[in-house]
Automatic annotation (TrEMBL):
Domain Serine aminopeptidase S33: 26-137
Species of origin: Antrihabitans cavernicola
Record-linked Gene3D superfamilies: alpha/beta hydrolase (3.40.50.1820)
Keywords: Hydrolase
Upper taxonomic lineage: Bacteria, Bacillati, Actinomycetota, Actinomycetes, Mycobacteriales
Xref: SUPFAM superfamilies: alpha/beta-Hydrolases
The name this protein goes by in its record: Alpha/beta hydrolase
Amino acid sequence: MAERIKFASCSGPMLAGIIDLPPGEVRGWGVFAHGFTLGKDCPAASRICKQLAAEGIGMLRFDNLGLGQSEGDWGDGSFSHKVRDTVCAVNYMLDSGRDVRLLVGHSFGGAAVIAAAHDCSTVEAVASIGAPFQPAHVEHNYDALIQRIEADGEAPFIAGGKALTLKRDFIFDVRAADLQERIKDLRRALLVMHSPTDNTVGITNASEIFRTARHPRSFVSLEGADHLLTGKNQAARAARIISAWVDPYL
């Protein structure tokens, strides 16, 4: 079961989301943040949230600015914007009577949920999957465009067959974001999940996140998984692990 919703982003445009609803008793509620340009319907987001819902944890997943069914221009977003919109998603859930205790983020979204948790008073637990230690890690996706963007202010950027516009403010914002203090002062339970064979965001990122974090912290190696969790049962397995781990915090 799923409920399609829309809510205002931090800058005004409406964002499209789906709440995957538990078929039976509700154990709790959470919000999921997708990767760099992936969207709410990518395999990792869809499969993880559906599995969590099947285990009693309702999850809101949403398209970031200018992606999927969301309004706005992706190029007007940034890491800071993604963080604030994650907070907006939590607030939407709270306003609808759903007490969000869990944030889950994949890749770039993993970094975003760690940062966003600081502004979400009800959140007790954060799970990152294949997350970079620093948001600037995403520069490898567009490093060939950086000089042009710095000179011209923007450049076309192709992601997943879709033409996006990458802007100077975006790359400056990503470079300025420092996750280290956010991790150290998280004051929530943290689950770090990462594949040792992740060729997009290396396993050393998980090591740095875990080393920086304070207890309660946990690490799970997603053996055999690729970065996008596209293999059979990889996303569902990650969700089942999150479901068991988060139980005390719901």
